């Protein structure tokens, strides 16, 4: 696996509003999120992984691969997530009381594509390594 630890700057988003509507995020929060251009940092310390999102607000997730854990999503929902890693792809299955979201983070050189799928809705966020 390539070293994908580091900081990534948000470049653009696709279809994010439809995803946020699907999970029940209110209009004001959706509007702020669409205007926000977050930076994300990925760290690996032994078998512990960290995702730190900053910008409008800071959001930290710490996890171990394969272990389901309860966490707060960026939008404040309480979810249960399980993370797996295959090659340069980090996959998160996020479950809340209303459904399941699959978040696939693909690291390709200095580019990161995050694909978020919920039902028939697919959103993407694109990042560039700093």
From TrEMBL:
GO terms for molecular function: lipid binding. InterPro entries: Calycin, Fatty_acid-bd, ILBP, Lipocln_cytosolic_FA-bd_dom. The keyword Iron-sulfur does not apply. PANTHER family: FATTY ACID BINDING PROTEIN. Gene3D superfamilies: 2.40.128.20. This is Lipocalin/cytosolic fatty-acid binding domain-containing protein. The keyword Phosphoprotein does not apply. Belongs to the calycin superfamily. Fatty-acid binding protein (FABP) family. Residues 5-129 form the Lipocalin/cytosolic fatty-acid binding domain. Pfam families: Lipocalin. Keywords: Lipid-binding.
